[in-house]
Specification:
Porin; 22-stranded antiparallel beta sheet; 2 helices; two-stranded antiparallel sheet; 7% helix; 384 residues; 26 strands
Length: 384
Amino acid sequence: MRKLLIVLAAFAFVVAYTLPAMAASEWSFYGQARVLTFQTNVSKEASASGFDDEDFTHDLSGSARTLGANVKAGDISGKFEAGGTLNLRLAHATWKFGAGALRVGQDYTPGDYFPSGMVYGDNSMVSYGASYTGRIPQVKLLLGGLQVALIKPSSTGVTLAANSAAVWEINQTTGAVELTPAVTTGFDGQETDTSIPKIEVAYSLKLGPVALKFFGGMNTSDTVGYTATTETTFTVDSTLLGVGFSIPVAALYIKGNVWMSQNPANYGMVTLASAGNAATVNAAGTGVEDAESMAYALVVGYKISDMITIEGSYGYVDGEVSVGGVKTEAEKTFYCITAPITVAKNVILTPEIGSVDYGDTTVGGAKTKNGDMDYVGLRWRINF
């Protein structure tokens, strides 16, 4: 009982101490309601069933800002934002000191860049050419146009060959019961270890009307394979290097980004080709084969009036890696036309039509078609 009273007294002291600071804080709440209405047509090669698939969607967007707030108290500011399903989007605090600031919490990373107003899936081209690794816990230093962040590391490693016991199985062709031999050349299990944060750096500057953002990052993780008597480590180093740009020309604007990455899937990149984007174990089983990928997004928009803007977006991403000594390559292209219409203050309807070509996956020269997807619809949005 005595310990409980001490804890309660300490808690009461903390609350009493912080109430004056809380009262001095300036709170500004906001929200956005978003619903997506789309018709999607997926070719048989890209559908899960192996047949052409048509779907109609009329649902709440997961990227809606159900509740958000900006908070300010002197040199300290904060922000939190919950999504359409009350998932945590943003939660961070910033301390301003002199010419810089320190931000702690979950935020966009320095390497994130969104050139497009694409609304299908509220995707903003993060799957089709934009640079995006997510809103991730981090500690970030901001000095003018410079950002340096220590970020929660990505723990995606490589898949190791697994040992297995001999089992009796039915041959699906002959119907005979056959003994599948044991596999003893792999590992009994695997785990992934990380020892340092992911590190990202970005620098933004303006050259007249042109705005540029240079960004880069690195991540490292170890995949450890083990048996009863041995342990083997496979180190995966992944990197990101890119640039984003924005060029306004009167009512016209041009935006885009280009990035390159070693092992983008291991880095945590969302924009990926259908294959060739992750590190693999080399043919000898002694090390890692690195994947190489690049992508770009190009956006051209024109503001017709204060009510209507029209925007065209194009994206491309590819990937290449060696699997067991055999080269695997894949690519993906995307385009859409978007036209946000402000029908009243804080009420925006955005019709859009678009298409994704998932391209071919080429393994050792043999190509497999991955199919395509077309869509048309609109996003309903009201800010409050």
